[in-house]
Design goal:
heterodimer; A: alpha/beta; B: 2 domains
């Protein structure tokens, strides 16, 4: 599902160029849940941004669902994101003016779904994350864990093959974080989504099929989960 | 890269064999984009009511100021052309070089009235005297009026808008109609009050309403009384008014009258109005001052709306980043801002026009300080919409520069 070969990313140019990813190779199978771990500044968020088509690589090759990312015009990246990627952010990043239901509907409407179909799908997704009774609530009326579960539902809306999660439990207490990760991995496995989770939180490593450690822009460990 | 076995706890998650997920097809150009962005734009707009209020203040401010400026402009023009409009003449025979009906441009011989009546296409012709006169006040001092003398019994040329007395009373010697809204200024005039006008006795026998040109208010008398009060000779008129027979061609009759009176000017109603407006604009410089006032009010509104919308984008930059990360394009976000701009314009114009209407009702009086033609509301809406759309372009420039990658930075 995700094939990364000799990926390089540098900021700036010439003598001042700062390389943050050095010839990274990474494969993530379809339906796999991968934990991307490492210290701050190691390059994991940069890697996630490139996989999420919000940042362009400096070199190498990135294939998402068989589509090469290198050379894709910037104007086409929103379409790539719409089609292949679902995002879960550190702070849920729900739109505060929209209800939980409308937040989940939004990516579907951007994909061109009809309003009725988007509502049905979004309601089902919110049910699956246990928020059937919170459809009309604004994000400000939800707890941190509930808001993050809405964000999971939004990421899964439209069944994108790849889900990218950036520190999804960082803003949550341990118990809530566990609950959120349980929900995410359960739905990802049920739906067959490929999931990449960037995290510092070693309490949620157990939810991954694989754990990949990145340090100084290089992958230093790639560990398969015992039960994967 | 080394592959190391880490000590990790097994999660209590049931692992099923992965399904094959196929990317859902999406429309290249979303047919719902406008509707989606409109709903999103409205929800953002109405969610932050303080910002919305700030934007609306800008639009309302621009609407109020521009409407007041334009209203004053039209009011002045209307008040200066009101007499020509109400007199009912199709053609005017005036002294050469006449730029407005002020009575001081010279005279025409009284014979033109009789001669004009014989010209084919002319149904009627009437003399008019007009000139400045001074009303002596009981407490001392004087006030100017523009005295109009009209021929009995037709009384073409006034008085109009009679609110007290009957025009037929002008047949009495020394009888004069004054402007009702100037009664206090003229020393507390009532029906029957006597004043000295240009050194002659004059008695108020009626009042008009709203006949207030840029200069002194109009007063009306019979032709003979006016001649006496204005010290005019028996054979001089200020102007001659001409009415056309039904179906007569105004241009053809105008040419015939010009041929008949080569030393006078023969003007159509439209030409005389145009000259009057031109003279008001030239003498008062009001066109420039009103125009710059309108421009300043629109500019102030533009700045307020632009800054408020820009500030709203700055406040929501993370939301716009999220939208971009979710797949919204710059075009989608431009639509969102456009919808917000148009919404602000429509609400702002409705609020502004309501305030203008309320103000007009509150000050409804003979002075008519504002004249707002119905089309001005449509023009205001169009102008404010354009203003808000242009103002939103500043916000759009900022939105275009929002990087979706920002959503991954904490």
């Amino acid at each position: 599902m995700i094939e990364v070969r000799k990926l390089r990313k540098a900021y700036g140019g010439g003598a001042l160029a700062q390389t943050v990813l050095h010839d990274v190779d990474l494969s993530v199978r379809s339906g796999e849940v991968l934990m991307l771990v490492g210290p701050s500044g190691s390059g994991k968020t940069t890697l996630l941004s490139i996989l999420g088509c919000v940042l362009t690589p400096s070199g190498g090759s990135v294939q998402l669902a068989g589509h090469e990312l290198m050379g894709v015009p910037e104007a086409s990246l929103p379409m790539m994101r719409l089609r292949y990627i679902g995002f879960i952010f550190q702070s849920h990043n729900l739109l505060p003016s929209l209800s939980a239901l409308d937040n989940v509907r939004l990516p579907l409407l951007l994909r061109g779904w009809s309003s009725g179909r988007a509502t049905a799908e979004s309601t089902e997704l919110l049910e699956s994350v246990g928020l059937r009774d919170k459809l009309v609530c604004l994000p400000s009326q939800l707890s941190g864990g509930q808001a993050q579960r809405v964000a999971i539902a939004r990421a899964l809306a439209g069944r994108p093959p790849i889900i990218l999660a950036d520190e999804p439990t960082a803003a949550l207490d341990a118990h809530t974080g566990q609950g959120v990760m349980e929900t995410l991995t359960r739905l990802a496995h049920e739906g067959g989504h490929t999931v990449v989770v960037v995290t510092h939180d070693n309490r949620i490593f157990k939810f991954g099929d694989r754990i990949v450690r990145i340090e100084d822009g290089r992958i230093t460990e790639d560990t398969a989960h015992a039960n994967a | 890269m080394s592959t190391t076995a880490l000590q990790i706890e097994v999660a209590p998650v049931e692992r099923t064999s992965p399904k094959k997920v196929v990317a859902q097809p999406i429309a290249l150009v979303s047919p719902h984009s406008w509707a989606t962005m409109a709903r999103l734009g409205w929800s953002m707009l109405f969610h932050d009511r303080l910002k919305l209020a700030g934007t609306l203040v800008g639009v309302v401010f621009a609407v109020l100021l521009s409407n007041f400026q334009v209203g004053i402009y039209f009011s002045l023009l209307l008040r200066n052309t009101m007499f020509v409009e109400r007199a009912g003449a199709d053609l005017w025979i005036t002294p050469p070089g006449t730029v407005a009906l002020q009575g001081g441009d010279g005279t025409v011989p009284d014979s033109v009235v009789a001669v004009a009546r014989a010209v084919p296409g002319v149904e009627w012709s009437a003399p008019l005297l007009m000139g400045a006169a001074s009303v002596k006040l009981p407490e001392g001092g004087q006030k100017p009026v523009m005295l109009v003398g009209t021929e009995l019994p037709a009384l073409r040329g006034g008085p109009f808008n009679v609110v007290a007395g009957t025009p037929a009373a002008l047949a009495m010697r020394d009888a004069v109609f004054f402007e009702g809204s100037r009664r206090e200024l003229l020393g507390g005039l009532n029906l029957g009050s006597v004043r000295e006008v240009n050194g002659h006795r004059a008695q108020a026998v009626g009042f008009t309403s709203g006949l207030l040109p840029f200069g002194p208010s109009y007063a009306f008398a019979s032709f003979d009384t006016a001649r006496e009060l204005l010290h005019r000779s028996n054979h001089e008129l200020s102007y001659a008014m001409v009415g056309l027979s039904p179906g007569a061609d105004v241009r053809a009759v105008q040419e015939r009258l010009r041929a008949q009176f080569p030393s006078q000017e023969v003007l159509t109603l439209a030409e005389l109005k145009q000259r009057t407006i031109g003279q008001v604009l030239r003498e008062s410089g009001i066109g420039k001052s009103i125009g710059s006032g309108v421009a300043m009010s629109v500019l102030c509104g533009f700045v307020i709306v632009a800054l408020t919308m820009f500030s709203a984008v700055i406040d929501r930059v993370r939301q716009f980043g999220t939208l971009k990360a979710l797949g919204a394009t710059n075009l989608d976000l431009a639509r969102l801002l456009l919808v917000q701009a148009i919404t602000c314009a429509v609400i702002g114009v409705l609020l502004g026009e309501t305030l203008v209407a309320w103000f007009l009702r509150a000050i409804r009086e003979a002075e008519q300080p504002l004249t707002l033609p119905p089309w001005l509301m449509v023009a205001t809406l169009a102008g404010m919409t354009v203003m808000c759309m242009l103002a939103s372009s500043l916000a759009l420039l900022r939105v275009r520069r929002v990087e979706p990658a920002m959503v991954f930075r904490g």
